[in-house]
């Protein structure tokens, strides 16, 4: 590799550090004196405290690299703050008028520091991404390294450790926890193995370690990677994205090893902890590829059902002792209801014996028993006790757990939803919106999916799934989008769900869950005289080596089809199976590309007119060409992380003719989207339009006024959108307008006062929007406005005229930890 050229230290950066230090010192001095502006000064001190270590790191980093000139604006801001604080010190305590004015100025300055600093860091981060790409190209001369994937996607490249339980039980477990923690904090040990039978809490233990305050204090970079089916290229790409760098196209495992070493050298200036969770027995050679002895403070924790002889130290976890199991059951049964009577000790004892000391089984069962009376406990215990055998193999453990889950609370829908989760790949974050699309059609639920989300929370409550919320915002999902909610189903849970799905003859199963490797199909599929299948839910997953044309499959009863795939590195295409065309009852189609780069769909013509919901993720889509399809029953279509082509050809029919009854259009994280084709604005039935996190979306044309049926418009995080058209006033049925985090939006059209049905506005994070149009007083139906503190002062005076208005101040706790990556 070529020697990295040495660039001169930028003078502006040194000046910035000086200006920052002067302001920080002044603020700390004033905060200690207890001056009249104490609360505001202390808040500014808190903000500067978060920025201080990052300024230091920028200073060290830029000793090697040239820094862009936008530093000057930050330096000017620091000088402005110094002058403002000095002026405050000269104000007489009894001058209430000036004191009030400068209180507001201090509050505005604090918000401005956070805002401007974050914008600057985003620019700096883009520069740093470019530098890493330059180094990577030197290692492997790839002419096209791929564009950076969208930042902030909670569902894709995020390898943060999942949430840990509040407590762990068991003296031996606690002893293992202490020993592993000591080994991670000391020098020398590079790989630690945690091994145990399934259900003994390996993953829970390492989650707890990842969130330990001492471990987090040492390891500034913790990555948690589920590994059951090892794919080195995929894992390295996720690690690169997790650390905020552009994701390259990796063609071979040798390339992946080189990229991995480069990444670890790049981020290894701070200690790195890598957790490889649920590694299977054949993966010894795979694990070896993660070992780099020359990288300081880089440690690996491996969890597995198997012991790898070459990896030491090893920690063995075993089922809990009877006493520890009793303690776990007691604590879990009463954790959410301290007022309930103490559980019957004899019953607790019998339940513990039936669970064989498996922590996971105990917690699941405890959730199903919470709040129930003694007769319910006895009934369930009798059912569970029938036919219990001694646990000796994995399948026995699954059978034991199955008995505990049968007929939970007498509500079969819980098990139905539990099995449905197995339609998605193991250890992936399942978008709640995808589950909603599936469940609404399978179980005839409400269109917005409120009941479906309640069912998901029920699974989480019972420890049958995990819920990940990547961002909690102040709207509290008022518009029922749930776009930041994801479900996860781990290890034994998914194995159990699939085991349940596979009961009985294949022709009579309610669910058909297929995972195809290379070009191998099940024997029953390749029979010449195949009988029609009765499955209502069908899920087919294929890997990157799949290339065989689809054999025919008769699915006369299928109502939901989930297609999960990864593409070949060269073709990056995926052919929809022809048998979709004859699945006449199909209502929901969910197509997800799990490759890092978007793929093109072939055979679009097979999509039938009976479909009511379509969800496409990481797909190359031509919106105008979709006008050639016949989707007359379609009510909702969603595009997530798609490349959307808006170029129309002479052969393209009107998209409004293709889907004339569309009620909802959702577009998320589609970075190349600039505007929508005109045909969208001719779909008169459209009630909900959601365009979120599309950072290049900049044009909302006047034609939106033609969509008279719109009730919800979400333009969340469309950071390039600078204005709303005047015609928005024509949306007489609009109830909810979300323009949160539209950073470039500086004004609202005066015609907004004509939106007589508008009840809620979310304008959190609209940093340039400072003045409200006079017509805002005409919004007599307005009930709720969500905004930042500095915008709230413009709304509060309006409450005298808008009597029912509630102004909700959204103050997100500033969190700049991500900048250190």
Description:
Belongs to the disease resistance NB-LRR family. It comes from Eucalyptus globulus (Tasmanian blue gum). This is RPW8 domain-containing protein. Keywords: Plant defense, Repeat. Pfam families: LRR_14, NB-ARC, RPW8. The structure is a single chain. Among the domains are: 129 residues; 146 residues, P-loop containing nucleotide triphosphate hydrolases (Rossmann fold, 3-Layer(aba) Sandwich); 112 residues, Alpha-Beta Horseshoe (Leucine-rich repeat, LRR (right-handed beta-alpha superhelix)). The protein has 21 helices and 25 strands. It is 35% helix and 14% strand. The strands form four sheets. A 13-stranded parallel beta sheet has the order 9-10-11-13-15-17-19-20-21-22-23-24-25. The chain has a five-stranded parallel beta sheet with strand order 2-3-4-1-5, sandwiched between helices. The longest helix has 44 residues. Helix 12 runs parallel beside helix 14 and helix 15 crosses helix 19. With 821 residues, the chain is α/β, with parallel strands linked by helices. The N terminus and C terminus are likely disordered.
Properties at a glance:
single chain; 821 residues; alpha/beta; Rossmann fold; Leucine-rich repeat, LRR (right-handed beta-alpha superhelix); 13-stranded parallel beta sheet; five-stranded parallel beta sheet; 21 helices; 25 strands; disordered C terminus
